[in-house]
Amino acid sequence: MNGRRQLSLLVLGEGEDELDRSCSSVTWTLAHPTALSQNTLHTDGVGKSSLVSTYVSRHFAETVGPVLTRVFLPPENGCTVTLIDTRGGDETMKNSHSEMGCPFGHVDSIVLVFDASRVETFHRMNNLWLPLIEHFFGGDVPVVVAGNKVDAAEDKSEPHGAGPTPGQIVSLLKNFKFVRQLIKCSAKELFNVDKVFREAVSSVLYPIGPIFDLDRGKLTSAFERALTRTFRVFDVDKDGLLSDNELKAFQRKIWGVALTEQDIERWKTMISAGCLREEVMRDGKITLRGFLQIFDVLVAKENKCSVPWRVLSMMKYDDDLNLIPPEEFDTEPELKQEEVAYLEEGFRQYCSSGGMLSSKDIQSIFCVCDRPLPPWDKRRRGMFDGCHSFPRSAHQEVTPLGTPECSPPPSPTQSDLGLSGISITSSPLPSIGTTSGGTDSSPTASYKGGPMSLSSWLSHWHMVCAIAPTIAREELYQVGYVSRNLAQATARNDPPTTVKVLVLTDSLEEKGRACLLEQLLWRLHGSEVVQDGEERCFGTTCSSHEFEGRTTFLVVTCLDTITKPDEVTALAKVYDVVILPFDDSESFDVATQVEHGVLTDEVPRIFTSIGESHETAEEHCIRMDLEPPLIISTSSEGADELAILHLIKCVRNEREPVPLRLTPHGERKKRAKRKVMFLGGLVTAGIVVLGLSALNRRGSGQGGKSVLGILRRILPF
Ligand SMILES: Nc1nc2c(ncn2[C@@H]2O[C@H](COP(=O)(O)OP(=O)(O)OP(=O)(O)O)[C@@H](O)[C@H]2O)c(=O)[nH]1
Ligand SMILES: [Mg+2]
To answer: Is 504 helix (H, G, I), strand (E, B) or coil?
Structure first.
């Protein structure tokens, strides 16, 4: 619903004697030629003042002043209304120029009155008043046409009284799209007077423009998008249809009341009434097309714009039909079970062939978003500005290890890896407010990636969530996911399904390390990378791996230059393990500098070398009570998989029979902690024993059962 709270309604139309002197007074230029009738002898006004007066006083007065002063109506639904009566269409308006603005000040809506008993007033409205309004307001202000004095018109013997024919009315509505309604009324008989003003207010509060394209005669694409998302939210069983129960849930959410069986039948009849070529019902359930059809009928045929706006408001859309995100999203850099389940369901619902999502399927999933492209599409890279990384595999396939049937992703080009992606935020978890649009993210942009397997689909989401949790959640929300806050989704004792690895190095030139990074980032995914010593190696990828009967998503983010150590320190805490790569003693020095300069003691880390081990590194790890360096062989078959398994084990540390040592002096600290706990326990036990013996002494003096005596019987001392 439009957020306006103070509305001004202008009441316009012919006045007394107007027709006789009108021609000479029209001096302004109009886009439409004026053909003015001069043959009438009527002198009465069309009843503007009478309408206002009757509406306010609920009584028809035979005589009213020529022009009423501004009428301020008491607030209704939090909205105040001012009625502005005018005299005989007012010379001021006719003699004004549009550049000077409307002579009556700001106007939200216009009630244009004609006399239904005098057809010439209708023609004059058509030829003079409506072009004049268009000239002044450019079609931006909605107009409700009131055909007053129907009581007098009905006295006449003509088929339509003396008023306009239906054909003339249709042509008026066609020519002037800003005319929202034509209502027959009578101030004298208090017939439809309320309706005239109510509709004039509604036309402002529930504007038709954003939801219905009057030129094309169909719902706007923005409104269809919003409705499609709404349909998805209520299609709980994800069969692409709305069952009666789902329809009831929709009704309850929007209007807070339950639907009756008759209501449902009425809706279904309404849907089937339209002669559409597309399927509107299937197995007694409503298809998306059918759902859209309901709103088409409501707006185009029943002129009930308040219903669509109610739906939009309840579904959290603003006046421009942008989805308003909730105050805050979850910042957990790992997808919840509930979210993963939703994505899996979505995959199954949309994959059209062979268990893979085609680019068209992906486009269908994202068609409800403002920008119908997945967040990893490189054209949306701008949204990751301010995040610590952007998806390295943007616009490419991420192929799970060991599935050679999928073609390898193309090598990233230099332009894919613009420097903007590595900007490091002051906060490790970016907020939505910092995002900005990508370069080419127009709503018509089509997605070219795919086909995508289920694990690849999930990998992409895990990756986006690891880089920017709030962005991932906002995208999920946009495609129709609404968190049900299931308790089990948050309570998780299971091992994590996502393993987040941060690779840190502080040198660009070293080929060995660059190669190692490429190993981790790309060879893990079975892709060939053209090695270039100059190439920057940063970004984030994700791949899925079967481990101990569970799918684990490995998210690898690589930062190969550390310009803001404080920020990297904060970032490292979000990751499960940090990899410090090296390949000789010199690069090992760099790795230890990174370790000391950036990592705090509680951050798990592992030194990783290519090819062979190095003595200094091993000594360092022993001294720090860390795992020995992880060696990744570039030549031996299956080395990558071993490295991955090792990384996964690192994160599931607590599950290993012998825990891996990933934090410096972790074991020593644990032993010290145990010792403190043991000593603490001893001291506590001593205090308890002393206390009890004191009690015992007192108790035995009184002849009662001593506490120590009882304890002695239970405990073996
Ligand atoms: N029969 C009938 N007469 C009406 C009705 N409404 C107004 N009239 C009469 O029409 C005449 C003009 O009404 P006004 O309200 O003064 O018209 P107006 O449009 O304000 O005219 P100006 O102030 O001169 O611009 C009066 O004699 C009213 O009594 C109606 O619904 N039915
Ligand atoms: Mg008047």
So the answer is: strand
**Which is more confident, 32 or 180?**
180
- Measured between alpha carbons, how far is 327 from 329 in angstroms, rounded to an integer? 7
Helices (H), 332-373: 337-350, 359-366
pLDDT in tens, 315-367: 999 999 999 988 788 888 889 888 999 999 999 999 887 788 988 899 899 99
pLDDT of 386 over the 70 cut: yes
Say yes or no: 580 and 674 in one domain.
no
Q: The domain spanning residue 108 has which CATH number?
A: 3.40.50.300
693 inside domain: yes
Q: Are the beta carbons of 247 and 241 closer than 8 angstroms?
A: no
Pocket of ligand 1 (CB under 6 A): 13, 15-16, 44-50, 62, 64, 66-67, 87-88, 148-149, 151-152, 186-188
**Closest residue to atom 7 of ligand 1, CA basis:** 47
Q: CB within 8 A of 44, min separation 6: which ones?
A: 16, 115
Q: Are residues 157 and 277 in the same domain?
A: no
User: Both tokens of residue 307?
Assistant: 């219903």
pLDDT tens for 128-175 read: 889 988 888 888 899 999 999 999 886 555 544 567 888 888 899 889
Ligand of minimum distance to the alpha carbon of 64: 1
- Ligand 1 atom index nearest CA of 62: 29
- Compute the distance between CA of residue 657 and CA of residue 635 in angstroms, rounded to an integer: 30
Inside any domain, residue 655: yes
Nearest CA to ligand 1 atom 32: 149
Q: Judge if 261 and 277 occupy the same domain.
A: yes
Cα 42 to averaged position of ligand 2 atoms, centre (Å): 15
> What size, in residues, is the chain?
717
Residues 389-411 pLDDT 10s: 777 654 444 333 333 333 333 33
